[in-house]
Amino acid sequence: MARVLLIDDDIELSEMLRDYLCHDGFAVAVANDGESGIAAALAGNCDLAVLDVMMPGINGIEVLRRIRSQSRLPVLMLTARGDELDRILGLELGADDYVAKPCTPRELVARIRAILRRAQPDPGASILTSGTLSLWPERRHAELAGRVLELTSAEFGLLEVLLRNIGRVVGKAELSETGLGRPLARFDRSVDVHISAIRQKLGGHTDGRSWIQTVRSVGYQLVRE
To answer: pLDDT tens-digit profile of 59-94?
Structure first.
């Protein structure tokens, strides 16, 4: 049974979502303020956090920042519909995905399940390598020249797709479907923001080239060393 932490100051909404998630087979804990949400997220007793951006006191962005400073726990952000700035900032800080409020419980469950699926190790997967870059899908572990890459589950999923297709341009729709576990929505910049974060963590090749090349209006390509 997957354990979900809801961090939202809206008590009525939290109770409604908790009831729905419990009915769908999840174990659910609720925190109604930022401080208790951070403590619960870092306690190691949950598999995923659902975090509302708009909270009094410590808002969701700061909560995410503090969680990410110590943990790679998958985080799904709840953002106001049309608030592109919060979505991009959340993704840049390491959120795995977002859902715009108001959302249906069914959509929320679908996003949660997609994140949990890609965060699960694949025991049948073998090591993937290209030059000094190595990924262990079964451990959700990545290294570059012996240095551990601290990737979120979304970043790992996208890098794995690119490494499995090294040398080939992978379209954004395919990256979203395979790497993030959901269809690419219109005006959705999640793939672009995650790829930007991966680029920063990989750095460049010894000859100065970026590991990931952008092919305008098509997608992205992981290039060999």
So the answer is: 999 999 999 999 999 999 999 876 788 889 999 999
Rg (alpha carbons) of the chain, rounded to whole number? 18
* CA–CA–CA angle 207, 211, 213 (5° rounding): 110
CATH of 128-222 among 1.10.357.10, 3.40.50.720, 3.40.50.20, 1.10.10.10: 1.10.10.10
What is the reported pTM? 0.81
What's the one-letter identity of residue 172? K
Distance of CA 79 to the CA centre of its chain: 15
Using CA of residue 86, residue 103, residue 59, residue 27, what is the dihedral sign?
A: negative
The beta-carbon contacts of 134-141 under 8 Å, at least 24 apart in sequence, are 135/159, 135/160, 135/163
